[in-house]
Design goal:
By secondary structure, this protein is mostly helical. The chain contains 11 helices and no strands.
Length: 318
């Protein structure tokens, strides 16, 4: 790698051209990847790609004027001091908050590069252009703001917020909710059956722990293998599987952990309270994210949970 201080004026201009080409392609890729779900934000990045491309053309024209038509190959990876960029534009699930953070870093780095390059330039035309580009890059936040004002209207922002919410529900909330319901409800029968069959808090806890961990692994694998998210838009399968598996395990452990209390009836009473809290939480999540009426969701989940609970107590007592 070369030190920035060792670059010739031609190499500095060639590096600036390569940087502008790369940034323009990154912004164009952001626009392409975001266009389906966030069309207004995609239009902002289209504008920024066009802006970077105009900088490239200015630099190319100056390079040809000063050094001819042969352009040496030099990129930011060949020079010390540049940040290594995380290629989030290649991610399957491109998050808009990550994109905006990356954009801020890119513009800050570009501004610093042009400022340092302008200080070292001896040719007045080169120094003037690099200095102008340093000012432009430092003002790019204002350019982005102007583009947002043009493209991100209130209705567009509302639409993109709704899209973000929909993706959150599809990729995280739905699989986690399915796991929480399964973990909270399906483990009721084996845990309370073991409790009333043995009256041993230790044995009941072991049964609950095994049921919760086993259900978590099973549900996580099932969710991860259900689809790859390419068609449904449900995101990465391992993230959905992890959300579903952890929620399943937590749902079961919620009413298994009270059986660490030595006294059987105290442990059972605490476990019953935890079950009620879990069922209300599930009903609230269904109301908050799945647009299910809270009363209807509460009746459905409580009725189902009570039936499973009674089945476990009846089997254990027999």
């Amino acid at each position: 790698m070369k030190r920035f201080e060792d670059l010739s004026e031609a190499e500095t201009l060639a590096l600036a051209i390569a940087n502008e080409e790369e940034d323009s392609r990154i912004y164009a890729t952001f626009a392409m990847r975001l266009r389906r779900d966030f069309p207004a934000t995609a239009a902002v990045f289209d504008g920024m790609a066009t802006e970077e491309n105009s900088h490239r053309n200015q630099l190319l024209a100056l390079y040809e004027q000063k050094f001819g038509r042969e352009l040496p190959l030099i990129t930011r990876q060949d020079v010390r001091g540049f940040l290594r960029r995380n290629p989030i534009w290649l991610a399957e699930d491109l998050r808009i908050d990550q994109v905006r953070r990356q954009t801020s870093v890119m513009e800050l780095e570009a501004g610093e590069f042009y400022a340092r390059a302008a200080e070292r330039a001896r040719d007045t035309e080169v120094r003037r252009l690099l200095g102008d580009l340093a000012l432009v890059e430092r003002k790019h936040e204002a350019v982005a703001h102007r583009l947002e004002q043009t493209h991100l209207t209130e209705s567009a922002r509302a639409g993109e917020a709704e899209t973000s919410r929909r993706l959150l529900v599809l990729q995280i909330v739905q699989p986690a909710l399915a796991g929480l319901i399964d973990g909270s409800v399906s483990t009721l029968a084996p845990i309370f059956a073991a409790a009333f069959a043995t009256h041993s808090t230790h044995d009941t806890f072991l049964v609950g722990l095994a049921a919760s961990v086993g259900a978590g692994i099973s549900m996580g694998l099932t969710e991860a293998m259900s689809d790859d998210g390419a068609i449904t838009g449900r995101g990465r399968p391992w993230i959905r599987g992890l959300a579903c598996g952890l929620a399943t395990m937590l749902g079961g452990l919620g009413h298994a952990l009270p059986y660490l209390i030595p006294d059987f009836w105290t442990a059972t009473a605490v476990a019953a309270v935890v079950v009620v809290v879990e069922l209300i939480a599930i009903a609230w999540i269904r109301w908050r994210y799945m647009e299910t009426p809270f009363t209807g969701a509460l009746v459905q989940i409580v009725l189902g949970g009570l039936l499973v609970l009674l089945a476990g107590i009846f089997i254990g007592s027999g």
